[in-house]
């Protein structure tokens, strides 16, 4: 199964969840576009314990930590969704991590969300909880629904906020796949713990 991991914004926890789901499914991992360093591929790989997951090289590694459309312009690279194909892999499971949120531009006409829409694969939405996150999450949900993108479910990341979670689930209609607490340390044991929880909901 292929899954596309996206979020309500930058630094919402996509890479951490990508490591968790890769551990749960012993899936391969691919980040099509990396803008800036350190590389998310290195972060995810450093958290995996299983020996089956392969880290597939990015199609583009851009030097500037910025929106892909701008980072590509600086590096004199042209990004177009049609030039990206899901890589062949012997693994039946592949986790693909997007850049930033769903409407992060990759050029003047296309956005990150165009990738799973082109490939017709389900999205898992990562939402971190903060003041204003209900609005940001439901706006993201509206765009996913407007485009008819398949959504497997939502992952909440950070300190628990039951009131926010309840209303997001109510109005999105999505199921909650996992709740990731505000962990003091992120390490192999933590990733394995959440991977075991996630397996029950996939």
Automatic annotation (TrEMBL):
Principal location listed in the UniProt entry: cytoplasm
GO annotation, biological process: biotin biosynthetic process
Residue positions of the active site: 31
Residues bound to ATP: 11-16, 42, 97-100
Listed SUPFAM superfamilies: P-loop containing nucleoside triphosphate hydrolases
EC number, as in UniProt: 6.3.3.3
Protein name: ATP-dependent dethiobiotin synthetase BioD
Keyword match Cytoplasm: yes
Molecular function via GO: ATP binding; dethiobiotin synthase activity; magnesium ion binding
Gene Ontology cellular component list: cytosol
Cofactor(s) it depends on: Mg(2+)
Its biological purpose: Catalyzes a mechanistically unusual reaction, the ATP-dependent insertion of CO2 between the N7 and N8 nitrogen atoms of 7,8-diaminopelargonic acid (DAPA, also called 7,8-diammoniononanoate) to form a ureido ring.
Any single Pfam family the record assigns to this protein: AAA_26
Residues involved in Mg(2+) binding: 15, 42, 97
Subcellular location: Cytoplasm
């Amino acid at each position: 199964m292929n899954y596309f991991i996206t979020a309500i914004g930058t630094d919402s926890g996509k890479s951490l969840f990508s490591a968790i789901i890769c551990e749960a499914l012993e899936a391969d991992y691919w980040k099509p576009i990396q803008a800036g360093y350190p590389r998310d591929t290195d972060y995810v790989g450093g958290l995996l314990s299983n020996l089956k997951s392969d880290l597939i090289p990015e199609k583009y590694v851009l030097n500037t930590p910025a929106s892909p459309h701008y980072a590509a312009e600086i590096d004199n690279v042209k990004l177009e969704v049609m030039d990206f194909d899901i890589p062949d892999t012997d693994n039946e499971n592949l986790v693909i991590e997007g850049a930033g949120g769903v409407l992060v531009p990759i050029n003047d006409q296309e956005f990150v969300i165009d990738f799973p829409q082109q490939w017709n694969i389900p999205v898992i939405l990562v939402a971190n909880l903060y003041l204003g996150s209900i609005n940001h999450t439901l706006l993201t949900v509206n765009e996913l629904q407007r485009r008819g993108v398949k959504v497997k479910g939502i992952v909440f990341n950070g300190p628990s906020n039951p009131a926010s979670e309840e209303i997001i689930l109510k109005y999105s209609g999505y199921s909650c796949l996992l709740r990731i607490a505000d962990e003091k340390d992120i390490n192999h044991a933590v990733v394995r713990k959440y991977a075991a929880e996630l397996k029950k909901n996939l």
